[in-house]
Amino acid sequence: MARGLGVSADLQRRGLTMKAPKVAAEEWGWEQTGPAWGTRVYAPKSGQDHLGLGSVSSDRILPRVSPGINVLTIHPRYWSFYSWVLDDFWATELPRSAKSFRTFFRPREALFAMACHVCDAPEHLSLVANIVGARKVGQIAGGDSFDPQFDYIKQDLGGYGLYYRSTMEATGTIVVARPDNGFPFDAPTAVGSALASAYRRAVSGTNLAETLAGNDVESPVSRDHLVEFARTACLCQLPVASKFDLPLLQDLFLHAGKADEASARSETMRMLLDLSGVGQKSSLSQAEFRQLIYFRTLNDEQYTPRSELRDIARAWRVYQGREYFNYVFNRLLRWLVHNGNTATEGGFTLMSRAKLHAMVAKALNESVEEPSNGTRIPDCDATTTTPELLGALREHMALASPADSVWSRASGLGPRRAFASHRLRRRQGRFGAHTTRATRAHSAPKRKIRSPCADCQF
User: Fold this and answer.
1) Strand ranges in 293-362 using DSSP code E only, listed in sequence order
2) CB–CB of 188/90 below 8 Å?
3) Residue 321 and residue 293: Cα distance in Å, rounded?
4) Where are the domains of the chain?
5) Residue 202 and residue 407: Cα distance in Å, rounded?
6) Alpha-carbon distance 124 to 119, whole Å?
């Protein structure tokens, strides 16, 4: 946000000059200059958690309620696919090194990503996103052939290294190489080898599986061969793989790991089944799931957890409450960065601390009352102290509701109304686009960027 004091140097490198403001040396400093916005010097940075608040929910709460599974590892069949690749790597006469595995691995995951994109199986219609490499592979999915050496993702070990490696280790599927265990590179455990064998049987007989068995990862692969492979190998085919890896994965997620971890995963899955009875006429979207676990009500239906699932349901409610908390503060950061960037012409002018405070105070004063949706906090403005603000909130929020009761989505100043107020301001142009891209330049072309709370549409 505030790295922009290198503007002049950048302009000089390009043969340009900028007249320095007439400011005495003793007038420079935080009081006179305030923060500096450097969007014209530094490349824009994308992200959804610039403040690091999400680590509390993703690294602290989620591992307790769903150990071995996180928000990025939503496809169980990747456990089978990566186990298969690792098992084949160890069965092939190759150096046991990270470099050797990278050469072996990347063409296979690239081909798998393309197969998942061209899959024509009827089950594919229900597949949720998050195919590794989709951003690049999706752009060429209409072609008649595919190059296995296509640079589908930046990370050396693709989705395995980015997302699934740690969770596969946590569920006892692989051994990650470390100096203390003597492994030169990651290897499948007995559980991983069993998954690999089941997946290998599922894809056996396909042209692509035979090509990979011969370690031919240089020749282009036809679309027809990719489609044939996808009909048994795709992520969407797990529900119909009862003769292959499905029962192994079911057992893995219900019983793998330490006893307390297996118990937590089992309770979460039982809660999901219990919760699915609400709104059963249609599937629950991620946004609806978030509402349901927090408010315990959706479309005039209420969710009451079974007595034995009360603790895990409370934990999920805490998780979602923290997600709402994260959203608010990331949104405040976004507001500060956007408006400061605008007020300083993208970092070309300075903003004193007094002006920065005045800008924030003005916005706070204007935000106290939002008559269009009934939001009103009496006697609060930018000078209100924290204890005074908390006292005002207590008068307008239902704080006496028990931990296991249904929390109203329509009354008081809860997350739903606060979010609605933000969306109104966004439509009125009072805030910039809903994103935490903290260093976007004014001249940069507008792109659609995933909101930090894209799943929190109340």
Assistant:
1) 297-298, 301-302
2) yes
3) 10
4) 1-65+286-458, 77-255
5) 47
6) 7
